[in-house]
Amino acid sequence: MADARLEVTDALGRRIVPIDKAEFSLGRRDTNDLRLQGSEVSRDHTVIVRKDDAFFVKDCESRYGTYVNDDDVAENHALEHGDQIRLGRGGGAEIVFLVQDAETGPDRNTTTAVTDLRHIAALLEGLHALGSGRVLDDVLSMVMDSAITVSSAERGFIMLANDEGQLEFKLGRGQDRAALAGSKFETSRKIPEEVFETGEPRVEADLMDGDLANVHMGTVALGIRNVLCVPLKLVRYVDEAHSLEEQRRIGVLYLDSREKGTLTSTSTLQALDTLATEAAVAIENARLYRTTLEKAKLDQEMRIAAEIQQALLPRAAPTAKYFEAAAAMEACRSIGGDFFDYVDFPDGSFGFALGDVAGKGPPAALLGAMLQGMFSTQAYTADGPAEAIARVNQALFRRAVEARFVTLLYGVLQPDGHLTYCNAGHNPPFLVGPSGVRRLETGGLIVGLFGGAEFEQETLQLKPDDMLVVFTDGASEALSKDGEEYGDDRILEAIRANQDASTQAMLEAVFESVREFTVGAEQNDDITAMVVRYLGDG
Asked: Which of 378, 464, 363, 478 is nearest to 427 (CA)?
């Protein structure tokens, strides 16, 4: 009488379970003869029934069904040696039905290798279709464990090509799903590098034959005799008829063993070649998914940074009986290097500043936030704008932030109309009023350039309805789709066209004028502007 058994490979490892009862039950319940875990495994899933020397599988009305060689079965389905049994559509375990009498035939590892790998390839395709193979390490582990199980290799590893086309060790595994670190995986790189370069699989039945031992002395010294290495090729079809295709090699799958002949089967090579093709797609999708996740995480961090930056800027437009002001910033990227701030002094005077840090993005934004803090500290203790900027300049110079400087305009407006300002290398703002237009240029060098730099300030007497418009070069140097620069003259035109409007309306008019001019062009710098109007001594 033939003895039957199940070869089971799941999370617990690979084991042989004898079928020693007339009705052998499988399922999730503790009382089953073979207890299996899995989201698609029912408590009482299926039964293997023995009648004389024949075996039949019967599904116990499970929720997700029982499959033999990927065919859905109900009851009294005859089993043959080597049949693949799967509980549920996804399958929580690999189960192979084996009959003792059939062991005298060809080795199961070679005769059913193609069937095994087709099943694994189908699982990989399922991972791709369902979006489950999203974590690269999980996909690599699955590919490696499947290859070792089918080929009976003692160990294996996967190497993937980096951006420079060089192979990098990614994952090493031994039997029983044991992880092997790259530093401990001693072997010759010659074979995997040749396979990656040529795109052709390599089979070595015995490294001791001929001159191979001299070439692969390190590997032979470990007792390794048999090697199988296949390329991981990503195949993409370039037309709808699939008649043309292009291949791109992304890495190699390497297996070796000390036992002679376990990796030399033609069936094993064909099966692993099939696995490598499907695995390449799964690995590439996992890498792309990880890149997408990292980008999404970075985007989220940038959104949070942008919210923090906007929170650091004054929200409400300051107003008093003698002035009104408005300002806004539009960053070139998620966050920018421009900043502005207001200061309310105890004597009733009003301070305002606008700065432009060299560069764009996170580095400029960090420095801008630091400078905004410096300015807030120095504005209350310094004797006028020139001294405040000199202190900020010295503090920035001491920190020696390479290639990071800032242009800064700081002014203090008093209720009687006296405006004292210092322009540290910034675009000269427009002072527009009934008496005409002038530019405010008194000040000094860019902040942070020289530690001992001296700065000057100038005091003007403003008249009612005089308006000061401060802007960064992101506005004046904005480019149209044809590459033409917006220029200061267009800013002045926008100011004059809206001279009777409120400060907020004036600010919006300047921004809208820049937007209209740059329609169809990409914003190439942060744009910040501020409008301060003197209303007269209330």
From this structure: 478
Tens-digit pLDDT profile for residues 302-348: 777 777 777 777 877 788 899 999 999 888 777 778 889 999 999 99
Residues 208 and 66 reside in one and the same domain: no
CA distances from 242 to 66, 236, 246, 446, 475 (A): 35, 9, 10, 62, 52
Q: Tell me the C-alpha distance between 52 and 55, whole Å.
A: 8
Answer yes or no: is 187 within a domain: yes
The Cα–Cα gap between 465 and 188 comes to: 82
User: CA-CA-CA-CA torsion for 429, 434, 436, 442, nearest 10 degrees?
Assistant: -40
Predicted local confidence at residue 103, as pLDDT? 43
* pLDDT, tens only, 169-216: 888 888 877 887 765 566 668 889 999 999 888 887 766 655 555 555
pLDDT score recorded for residue 82: 86
The pTM for the full model equals 0.52
Range of 417's domain?
Answer: 313-534
| CATH number for the domain that contains residue 47 | 2.60.200.20
**CA 149 and chain centroid, separation:** 32
The contacts of residue 112 (CB under 8 Å, 6+ apart) are 82, 96
DSSP assignment of 350-380 equals: EEEEEEEESS-HHHHHHHHHHHHHHHHHHHH
The CATH number of the domain holding residue 512 is 3.60.40.10
**E strand map for 175-288:** 179-180, 202-204, 226-237, 245-257
